[in-house]
Amino acid sequence: MTILEELFSTIAEFRMYVPYAESNISFEQLNSSAISAKKQIVLILTRKVYSDIESAYGELNEALRMAMANLTMAKQLVFDIVSKRKNNVDIYKHEQEAMRRSFIENYYNAMDTVIQLLDTKEDFPSWKETRYKKLLDGLKIQSTEDFDMLYSIDLSYLFFFRTIPIQKEALDDGLSAYFERAEDKEDVLRMLHRCLAKQTIAIALRRFDIIEFPPTIRSLFDDSKASRSGKDEQERMLALAASLANEVKQELVNIDLLLTSDSSGSVDTNTSFNRPDDLIMLMPC
Questions:
Q1: For residue 94, which of 203, 212, 236, 224 has the smallest C-alpha distance?
Q2: For residue 226, which of 65, 96, 82 has the smallest C-alpha distance?
């Protein structure tokens, strides 16, 4: 049995989720791409959760099928293009890029649905035991909805889930100390949560491919167009990451002032450190 036959009974059923797949293609031809696709999904869901969804029925199983079918075709696309060119069928670069982008977008939308449903269902205890879900308990932004209110990610459950370790990294790099100092100061905590969201996005921009980002962020880059310039795109991603990091740095300066003012009743300046033995000498005119 091939990987796809675990989810789809026939190639016709598979094509319901990717209607532009060739009608004469077989599961055997797709198997190498399907193995890679399953591995990528299992890395997110874990093998136990994948198996539980695989044997389930309803909307969750449908979403997993959609994700698996489209990711498989995205990975298979390059091989199909080579095969067609050998048969003297030309595919333009912008057409190839548009097809791949459509497959990937369908995959991410489906995975958003999978994770959203897992978060709301009680009959999948294996999901609650995954490493990322356990890690989430110690973070300051604990839901997709909360993150989206701080920095728009189009309510992407997949993107939020994938940035869980990045959020922890941002906290470990110094932001957690600010949360400890802020304690119950609601106005400062709101500022800190926004800083955390921006810092998480800034780190993600250095780590992820732009196609992995939600549409609102992705639309800022060339990837939303038919053509794609890797060098320009990377430079713009790094520029946005630097801009967000600078915004966080400036906001933390303001937070420092607020916390210092609250604790001492005055803001420390360079003149606050004068010592009694620092004599002021006045010269006669």
A1: 224
A2: 96
